[in-house]
């Protein structure tokens, strides 16, 4: 998978590139807006990470110009402006996700992987399956090893999101944004409690445990042991 | 400050006044011209009528008494009027004079019999006369006229009046223009001076309001209100930077010290573990710093009013249900019961994210301070009259003493019993800032026992057509 990083701060870009390469991605870097747009239009990338404030050309302008050319490569916007308005503007410009600096690399990676997954062809499936865990999106029922599992509506959505990103790390803020549709920083462990309740339902009495806590990052649902 | 004349002449007030002076001047001239023309026409007409009747009288005398009688009468009247306003001349058909007080038939009288104006040179100098002629039976010619000395005097009088009138009008107008210009200039200058002083850094300056209630006062009031707002924002800004410095310096210093200590450790196999521990503490500390930083920024954002542009109708009932749903498991874990009492209420215009954060902060506070076994209630209701809406979070924990309820809304204020629990002291400040942004009333009251925090939104949004569209994502059926 090829990732383009458009970021003028050399240290940040190097840090991102190193982390992504270690994860197994091929990474190209552009240090300003013009070069970034040139690379983005002339090469094929699976995703782009675009800083909002760039010399030469605004990050949002790059995204807008790409979208105007019907280039639908998923874009993760990085910004030091974290306010609600900026976030909305970033997403309106055609960005697929928005991450505020400073961020944890694990958060960025989780979001990038979610973007890559989201843009894979497919979708429209009516059942999700991870290991022996099954989710029927039409009847909104869950089964593990053939046994039905009772889920509350929110738990169903939580599990659906985890299953759609099976094998990937999802962070607490991602869950809060995608499952609850609120963007804020809880000071307490509200999300953890929801996840541990879900874990009780899907892992208790089954083997192996599927819902793993990834220390310092978030959660991962997978049929393989951690 | 002296007002230079150059500036005065360039003021709008002066220019406007000058324009009025010119208009009034033209008006005065028109008025006098009309008066002048009407008066002189009237005089001429009356003169002509008098002459006509006199000629008719003389013609009758001639018919009764013959030429001799007429000559006598004319001579009599002419001599009686030697100095007076009347002119007479009776001539033979060949224009040789028979009687009268002028020497010869005037050339002007040869063309037309009426409205003749000619020079007579009397004892008092050159004078004009207005006359008519009449041809008697037998070819004798009679000329009767009035001298125009009085008409000329009247004309002169009118001209002088006009000149004076015009002078006074223009003079008064100019003085008025100068006064108006000066007055306007001085008031504008006062505003300018205040502006200059403010630009030089004295933000406490305000434009003086005269109290006349005129447009300058309104301008001054608006400018002052604007300056108040700017000053408030500047203060808030300063407060934010002070707070950031206060809040970030301590933890940063601590973190630096820990990292340095870790670096001092001697080389050895246990060092790797020590480094790891130091890094992990540093990361945890960084996360706390970021949380504080974000909280401060959210408060600053709410206080700046920048969110006004992105406000949308928010369904408080949905918001309360969402926040309850999100926090219910966490509260249950702590041994608290969370109940909701959602009563129909109108939507309010607001920032959904910020209001959610505010409610979440209130719930987190309730969760933190209510001992196990306690009960937390989140409720919505319509305000009396049905126009507004309110949302409240109540607990039966220790509560906040009445005298401290105002104080806890400030930043970093943490009550003594709260010192042992983790927290930034920013939670309620954000709620207060959110309330202010939404023009909502924030009330802290006694829940007997415990605390009930209520946000009252006086103005709800009346939705005429019920819509299914919620602000939140729809729950799956």
CATH domain class name of the largest domain in chain A: Alpha Beta
Tally of individual domains of chain A: 2
Q: pLDDT average of chain B, as an integer?
A: 81
Using only C-alpha atoms, the radius of gyration of chain B works out to: 51 Å
Largest interface: A-B, 26 and 37 residues
CATH superfamily of the largest domain in chain A: Response regulator
What is the correct CATH architecture of the largest domain in chain B? Answer: 2-Layer Sandwich
Describe this structure in words.
The complex is a heterodimer of chains A (226) and B (477). Chain A has 226 residues and is an alpha/beta fold. Chain A has 2 domains: 2-118, Response regulator (Rossmann fold); 127-221, Winged helix-like DNA-binding domain superfamily/Winged helix DNA-binding domain (Arc Repressor Mutant, subunit A), CATH 1.10.10. Chain A has helices spanning 10-23, 33-42, 59-68, 84-92, 105-118, 153-164, 172-179, 190-203, and strands spanning 2-6, 26-30, 47-51, 75-79, 97-100, 127-130, 133-136, 141-144, 147-149, 169-171, 211-214, 218-221. In chain A, the strands form 3 sheets. Chain A has a 5-stranded parallel beta sheet with strand order 2-1-3-4-5, with helices on both faces. In chain A, helix 2 (33-42) runs parallel beside helix 3. The longest helix of chain A is centred in the first third of the chain and has 14 residues, at 10-23. The radius of gyration of chain A is 19 Å and the shape is elongated. Chain B is of the alpha+beta class. Chain B has 3 domains: 12-157, Beta-Lactamase (2-Layer Sandwich), CATH 3.30.450; 216-304; 309-461, Heat Shock Protein 90. Chain B contains 8 helices and 13 strands. Chain B has helices at residues 5-9, 12-80, 149-199, 215-264, 271-304, 316-333, 352-369, 427-437, and strands at 86-91, 97-100, 116-122, 125-135, 141-147, 312-314, 337-342, 347-350, 375-382, 389-395, 441-446, 451-457, 460-461. Chain B has a 5-stranded antiparallel beta sheet with strand order 2-1-5-4-3. In chain B, helix 7 (352-369) runs antiparallel to helix 8 (427-437). Chain B is rod-shaped, with a radius of gyration of 51 Å. Chain B starts with a helix and ends in a 16-residue tail after the last strand. Mean pLDDT of chain B is 81; it is low at 465-477.
